[in-house]
Amino acid sequence: MSFIYLDNNSTTPIDPEVLEEVQRVSLTAFGNPGSRHAAGRKARQVLEDSREAIASMLGALPSEVVFTSGGTEASNLAIKSFTSGRTGSIALPLGEHPATVEVVKHLRPRGLKRVEIRLLPGGQIDQDFAANFPDDLVLVTTLLAHNETGTIQDLTRLADYCQEHRVPMHVDAVQAVGKIPVDFHHLRATTLSIGAHKFYGPRGVGALLVKKECKLLPQLRGGYQESGHRAGTEPVALIAGMALALRKWQLNAAGQQNYLSRLRDHLQSGLQQHCSPAVVNGDQAHRLPNTLNISFPGCDAEALLVALDLAGICCSHGSACASGSSEPSPILLAMGCEAAVYHSAIRFSVGTQNTLQEITHAIQTISEIVRRLRTT
Fold first, then answer.
1. I need a surface site. Which of 10, 44, 245, 339 has the fewest CB within 10 A?
2. Sign of the CA dihedral running 274, 277, 283, 284
3. Global pTM value
4. What burial class does residue 282 get, using C-beta atoms within 10 Å of its C-beta: 0-12 exposed, 13-18 middle, 19+ buried?
C-alpha cells in the first residue's frame, strides 16, 4: 500500500471475511426474501438470522431492527417520522453531523424550530440543557460519539428528561457502534441509527433501531418490507455482511479497543513531542479509542491536508459528509476553540489494519510537514 490510511471515521476498509460472506450469500441466497418459494425462503432465513444477531448484539429485539441503506437514511427516517405534520421545536447539540443538521434545517419551513444544546469545552453536553428547552419540544436528537472529536456523550440525564416529558430521543450511534459497546435498551433511546461501513462492513447498508411501541412514518413508498417501515427489497447479502462485521467486533471488543487506543495514544504523544504546540480537541477521558482530533497552531488545515496527502497520509479536516466546505468546524466552534486551533485542526482516526510501525512512520512524516509549513 502506497499510503497510510488514518481516516477510518470516514469509512473503514471492508473486512476480507465480511467480503467473502457478502459474496457467498449473494450466490447462495440470491432470492427475493419476499418471494414465497424455496429461493425466497432461503433469503428470508438469512435476513431474519442477521436481524436476530444484530438485535442481540445491540441490546434490542429483532422486531426493533429496520434495515436501511445506511446511517443517513436511518436518521432521516427517524427525524422525519417524529416531526411529520407537527410544529414545535427540535433540540440537538451544536456541531452535530450533517445527517441530522441538514434534515432539521429542511424542516424549518414546515414550522419546526431548532433549539441548540450547548456544549462544554471538551465537547460534552451541558447538563443544564433543560433550562433552554421550550414547552413545544417534539424531538431530541444527538450523537452518541462525535465523528470529529470522538467525544462520547453521557445521555443519562437527557434520556431521563425525554422519558419524563414523553419526548422521543433519537441517537445517532453511527460512529459509536463497532468501536464501543452500545446497548439500545440501556440508552433508553426511541430510535438509534447505525452504518455498517464504519465497522469494517459493506457500504450501502445500515439500520434504524426502533422502540417496539413506536410507529414510524415510511419515507419511501412501495412494498411492505421491514414491517411497513421501509419499502424496497432488502439487500440480504449486505445485511449478512453487516451482521458478521458486528459479530467479529463483539468477539474481540476489548482487545480491539485496547489495540486502537495504543495506536492513537502513540500517535498523539509522538505529535505532541515533535510538533509542539499541538492541541488535542475533545474530551480525552471519554472518547472513541481510535480518534485523535489535534490542532497545529501556525498551520493552515487545508494546506496541511494537501501536503499530507502528497506524502501518503490519509486523514481529514472533519466530517467526510461536509467535505468541500471551507467553513471552520462547527463542533470546534461550539466548544469555544480559538481561531488558531480550529483553523489548524486535523482528524486522525486509526483502524485495526494499522500497525505501530505505520504510526511511527506517520509521526515522522506529519512532524516534518508541520515544521515545514510553520516556517513558510
1. 339
2. positive
3. 0.95
4. buried
Active site residue 299: no
User: Which residues lie below 8 Å from residue 130, measured CB to CB, with a gap of 6+?
Assistant: 161
The three cell numbers locating residue 195 = 452504518
| Whole-angstrom distance, CA of residue 152 vs CA of residue 143 | 8
The pLDDT tens digits of the residues spanning 131-166 come to: 989 999 999 999 999 999 999 999 999 999 999 999
Antiparallel, parallel or unpaired: β 4-5 and 313-314: parallel
Burial of 211 (C-beta count, 10 Å sphere; 0-12/13-18/19+):
middle
Q: Which residue, among 246, 238, 250, has the nearest Cα to 46 in the 3D structure? A: 238
Q: Which one of the listed residues 214, 314, 321, 337 is annotated catalytic? A: 321
Burial of 117 (0-12, 13-18, 19+ CB in 10 A): buried
pLDDT digits (tens, 9 = 90+) for 242-294: 999 999 999 999 999 999 999 999 999 999 999 999 999 999 999 999 999 99
Quote the CA–CA distance of 210 and 323 in Å, as a whole number: 30
Mapping DSSP to helix (H, G, I), strand (E, B) and coil, where does residue 151 land?
A: strand
Q: What does the block give as the cell for 36?
A: 414465497
